[in-house]
Amino acid sequence: MDQSTVARWPKCWGLAAAIIAMSTLAGCQQGVGATATGVVSFNGKPAPAGILVQFQPQAPNSSASLGVTDATGRYELRFNARTPGVMPGESIVSLTIMSEPDATGKIVVPDALKGITIPPAYGERSQLRKRVSPGANSIDIDVGAEN
Predict the structure, then answer these.
(1) Which residues pair with 138 in a beta bridge?
(2) Which one of 2.60.40.1120, 1.10.10.10, 1.10.730.10, 3.40.605.10 gives the CATH number of domain 3-143?
(3) Dihedral sign, Cα of residue 21, residue 25, residue 30, residue 32
(4) Which of 11, 32, 40, 92 could cysteine-pair with 47, CB 3.0–4.6 Å?
(5) What are the φ and ψ backbone dihedral angles of 21, each rounded to 5 degrees?
(6) How many Cα atoms sit within 13 Å of 91 on the Cβ side?
């Protein structure tokens, strides 16, 4: 993960706090034995920086993991800003366009993300399912292609 993505984590986690709060054990899943990275793309072209990737495991009492795309569309799933990882098993995957405050405090969509649309099948009502295996996983998501 490049330094610009790491620098964005405090902003991203502030915006994603509500999602994390809904997870019963958010941040407490150290040592679960699974990690995941991948590339988000739109019709084969890498997504810009600032797409939030959420994996919500379907197992009971499981924590969501989040990642944010960098300028090349790459993401790394994390339980929190310090702890990389994801629960093994089947997860529902959703994408969200990140927004951030401008100089006046107004929440805006960064220029690189303007014009990007997340179809409902990948957004709030996502039914996109991905299986996470123990160990290291590479899970690419191409919006507009069959996953």
Answers:
(1) 37
(2) 2.60.40.1120
(3) negative
(4) 40
(5) -60, -30
(6) 27
